[in-house]
Design goal:
By secondary structure, the protein is an alpha+beta fold. The relative contact order is 0.05.
């Protein structure tokens, strides 16, 4: 038997060398050395120079990678007989990207880079054969990743498309915008794995999905050297026709995902996973993803949850504050569908072990809808939550939220004060931001300067300067606020007063003549002052800067088409503060409300206005109970009283009130 027969078997199994014929492999086999590692020994160490390829002939190894954010080594794979590692180091000599530890006594063939280089030097034909294999592999790899390789020589590039992105940027990142097709900008990249560059590009071409294609570095360089100027300076002599096509291109780009969404609406009911699968020609996963988004928008959902469970991928929508199951897709859709959501929101699809978050925007008829997408790894795979950030400010209006006329007047009087702070309080999901924005939109006039600092920016207010905080780069609430004060604002909206520093600056802003809107996480209006004192704010400063506090909850609004009255039992009525025998309402469920019994939402409010008496108590640092009592005695309508009024008017149900409001008996 050929002495290298055994070694050949293993060499044929390596990715790197498998395409070579046996004659060549035999020459490489000569350079192999046997090595044995006892259990627990480190074979290669991450970060050390890569100097050999290893073929496992017996045993088992673990591949560990250091996770810098956790400071631990995570096992990412196990390998056994017939598998190999360290291939790339033979070519690149780059540092090891992982640590390999023998978890059993392990035998390997080792091919040292030095020896391998010597074999190559003596046999140039090996290099040539390998080059051919690499070229084929790169092509195949790009195809597998859904990327295609393009050659610039064959393409006619448009001046307007090229000039979408500044030349400096193109040169620095080696990318080229090629053109629009089907509402997508195709972007040639030398390094398509560079997702950060994709993010940057999205800033130049807002709201247009970007699809990377691959070009070689040589192709890019020669294009920039020889053709870029000519195209940009319009020497192609085809300016007019290019302009014509550009306008079409831009139009197409604005349609984005919508074509598919509209396409799907027609057979929405029938578009189950099975049917989609049958749609042979199209891209079923793309349609499925679009369909999930379209249905969520149509149903008025605020969040989409894609959750891997044992049986498949569960899709749930949060509608009017409550999660409901939409469908469970077969397991085989899990990977491609989660990948699709990650791709469209600019996330790294190869990263599945760590949480990520990203954004995406689509244009729906006349309005833009923004989505915030986050992933977390769970037992059965990655869970994705898509938060729908409706940017349509036309839905605002204090009078839509506040159905009670006296309460509405109180709030309107408060926001017309020239300076001071209005706190809006309540738990997450209680609609604080909506109230703040509604207030802002009533104030918004060209002659006043409004600045907002938020996390995230949930709505677009045209003409208002909105700032997103980025704590990870040190741009936190406090820092933005300090900068605001130098920008001569009249009104400042602070998404949330979440710490001592931002609380202090908010108060400083109010005391220097600004009107400030902000939110706090407390249960009722009177607890606000305790919360601020816990943040080390002097009671006197709190009382001096205070305009008032709005505590609120958001409940589902009864569907007017199908609500019906009943008389609740005595104990419930008493608990809710209703007189015995008062009819309340519940929804039967009808076509108009998707059988939910509810349509939209309505607020429950408790408004504490800082009059002289309240100011005095707050300034003395009195307890919440005392302040609350005085406020009630002075006519403050409590959350409980407001709820009772909503129940009597048939605007919501007993269940909704019990779910959201903690009632003092
Ligand atoms: Zn109904």
């Amino acid at each position: 038997m050929n002495p290298w027969e055994e070694a050949l078997i293993y060499l044929r199994k390596t990715e790197l060398l498998s395409g070579l014929d046996d004659g060549i492999l035999e020459k490489i086999a000569v350079a192999l050395q046997k090595a044995v590692y006892p259990a627990g020994s480190v074979i290669v160490k991450e970060g050390e120079p890569g100097d050999a390829l290893y073929l496992i002939t017996k045993g088992l190894v673990e591949v560990k990678k250091r996770e810098p954010s956790l400071g631990v080594d995570l096992t990412v794979a196990k390998m056994g007989e017939g598998e190999c590692f360290g291939e790339m180091s033979l070519l690149s000599g780059k540092p090891r990207s992982a640590t390999i530890i023998a978890s059993e006594p392990t035998e390997v063939y080792k091919l040292a880079k030095k020896e391998f280089d010597a074999v190559l030097a003596g046999n140039p034909s090996i290099s040539l054969a390998m080059n051919r294999i690499f070229a084929a592999r790169i092509e195949e790899m790009n195809l597998n990743r859904g990327l295609s390789m393009v050659s610039l020589a064959k393409l006619n590039l448009d001046r307007e498309i090229l000039s979408l992105i500044p030349e400096q940027f193109l040169l620095r990142h080696r990318v080229l915008p090629l053109g629009y097709s089907a509402g997508t900008l195709s972007l040639a990249m030398v390094n398509p794995a560079d997702l950060l560059v994709l993010d940057e590009v999205r800033k130049f071409v807002k709201h247009v999905p970007v699809e990377p294609v691959v070009i070689t570095a040589e192709d890019f360089t020669s294009f920039m050297k020889e053709r870029y100027r000519k195209v940009i300076e319009g020497e192609t002599g085809a300016c007019d026709s290019i302009k014509g096509s550009l306008i079409e291109g831009s139009e197409a780009a604005r349609i984005d995902l919508l074509q598919d969404i509209h396409f799907l609406e027609g057979n929405e009911e029938a578009a189950t996973a099975t049917d989609l699968e049958k749609e042979a020609a199209g891209a079923p996963i793309v349609r499925l993803a679009n369909n999930i988004i379209a249905r969520a928008l149509k149903k008025g959902a605020s969040d989409i949850h894609l959750e891997p469970i044992e049986q498949g991928l569960r899709v749930r929508y949060r509608i009017d504050g409550l999660l409901g199951e939409e469908q469970v897709l077969p397991k085989r859709f899990q990977m491609p569908l989660t990948s699709r959501f990650k791709i469209i929101s600019g996330l790294d699809i190869t990263e599945r072990r760590f949480p990520q978050d990203g954004r995406l925007s689509i244009r729906l008829q006349e309005r833009m809808v923004d989505f915030r997408v986050s992933t977390i790894p769970t037992k059965y795979g990655e869970k994705i939550v898509v938060r729908i950030l409706t940017k349509d400010s036309s839905t605002f209006g204090l009078d839509r939220l506040i159905t009670d006329a006296p309460t509405l007047k109180l709030v309107r009087d408060m926001i017309r004060k020239p300076y001071g702070i209005i706190y809006v309080t309540g738990p997450t999901g209680s609609g604080k931001t909506t109230t703040l924005y509604s207030g802002l939109s009533e104030l918004h006039r060209p002659e006043i300067n409004i600045l907002t600092v938020e996390d995230p920016i949930e709505y677009d207010l045209p003409g208002v300067a909105q700032v997103q905080v980025h704590p990870e780069i040190g741009l936190d609430f406090a820092r933005v606020l300090r900068a605001f004060l130098r920008q001569d604002p009249d009104v400042i909206l602070v998404g949330e007063t979440r710490d001592k520093e931002s609380a202090a600056i908010v108060i400083q802003a109010a005391l220097t003549g600004h009107l400030v809107f902000t939110t706090l996480h407390t249960n009722d209006a009177a607890s606000t002052f305790i919360r601020l004192m816990e943040m080390n704010i002097q009671p006197l400063l709190i009382s001096t800067s205070l305009i008032g506090v709005i505590a609120q909850r958001l409940v589902r609004r009864l569907c007017p088409e199908c609500k019906e009255s009943y008389v609740p039992d005595r104990a419930v009525a008493r608990y809710l503060g209703l007189e015995e025998g008062t009819p309340v309402y519940k929804g039967r469920g009808c076509d108009r409300c998707n059988l939910a019994g509810y349509r939209g939402r309505v607020g429950i409010y408790e408004v504490l206005v800082a009059n002289e008496e309240i100011r005095h108590l707050v300034g003395q640092g009195r307890s919440s109970e005392e302040i609350r009592k005085r406020a009630v005695a002075g006519g403050m309508r409590t959350l409980k009283e407001y709820s009772a009024a909503l129940l009597r008017e048939g605007l919501t149900t007993v269940d909704e009130v019990l779910r959201t409001v903690v009632l003092d008996v």
